[in-house]
Design brief:
Elements lengths: L1 E10 L2 E11 L4 E5 L6 H9 L6 E6 L2 E2 L5 H4 L4 E4 L11 H6 L7 H14 L2 H4 L10 H13 L5 E5 L7 H16 L3 E6 L2 H7 L2 E6 L2 E7 H13 L1
Parallel strand pairs: 3-8, 3-9, 6-7, 7-8
Antiparallel strand pairs: 1-2, 1-4, 4-5, 9-10
Helix pairs in contact: 7-8, 8-9
């Protein structure tokens, strides 16, 4: 489904990704693992288009999207939850979540919100509260639910577990499994290898802008846990 070939990303004189190649097949949950600065976010941000590639190609279903601006990539069925719990602080929880489903009809939006509230009960109890007054974990739930609200074909999650309590990690993990069971393909980055390996089907371990190991969860487990504790 997603094919990345020889991707190079630079920030000034610093090379963040050095000819990285990766594949995400339909129906997989693929994890990019590695310490801070490994290049994980640069890769996922290149896929969504907010970080320009200096070289290489990104293809979705055989179509090259490298030159498509970030504003146009949602039309390809890509959902994105950035690192850092970015919510619209002055908007309600419901409006934050449904901002990701603006292309859907009102009826479809109601159905989408009900589905997400069944996965994340906080969305029901805090639906009318301003997102800026939520805890960090609750804001992360809102940001992830927003990315899921339009039932994207490809869901990009950047550090979804970072800094969260176990209860939130469990709810996010359950939602990832549910969306994958319904056919959504998922690419996610994570520093916390242990919970990430429980939801992934395959992965890449990164260090210094390079892929140092790839394969099934069992293939990369030892390497991933080593990176996790470096």
């Amino acid at each position: 489904m997603l094919k990345i070939r020889d991707l190079v990303v630079r920030y000034g004189g610093i090379t963040a990704l050095d000819r990285v190649s990766a594949d995400v097949r339909q129906g997989e949950t693929v994890i990019l693992l590695g310490a801070n600065g490994a290049g994980k976010s640069s890769l996922i941000n290149s896929v969504i288009g907010i970080v320009p590639a200096a070289a290489g190609t990104i293809q979705l279903d055989g179509q090259t999207i490298s030159a498509v601006p970030a504003s146009g990539r949602a039309a390809y069925g890509i959902g994105y939850s950035p690192e850092g719990r970015r919510v619209f602080a002055s908007m309600s929880v419901r409006d934050n979540v449904l901002a990701g489903a603006a292309r859907l009809s009102r009826a479809a939006q109601r159905q989408a919100y009900a589905k997400l509230a069944s996965l994340f009960p906080m969305l029901e109890s805090r639906a009318n509260d301003l997102a800026g007054y939520l805890s960090g974990g609750q804001q992360q739930i809102v940001a992830i639910a927003r990315a899921m609200s339009a039932s994207p074909r490809l869901l990009l999650l950047d550090e979804p577990f970072l800094g969260l309590a176990p209860v939130w990690i469990q709810q996010i993990s359950a939602a990832i499994r549910q969306f994958r069971a319904e056919g959504t393909t998922i690419l996610m980055t994570e520093q916390m290898a242990i919970p990430a390996l429980k939801v992934a089907t395959r992965g890449y371990v990164m260090r210094g802008g390079l892929v140092i190991r790839e394969g099934s969860v069992e293939d990369i487990r030892e390497s991933a846990l080593t990176e996790d504790y470096l």
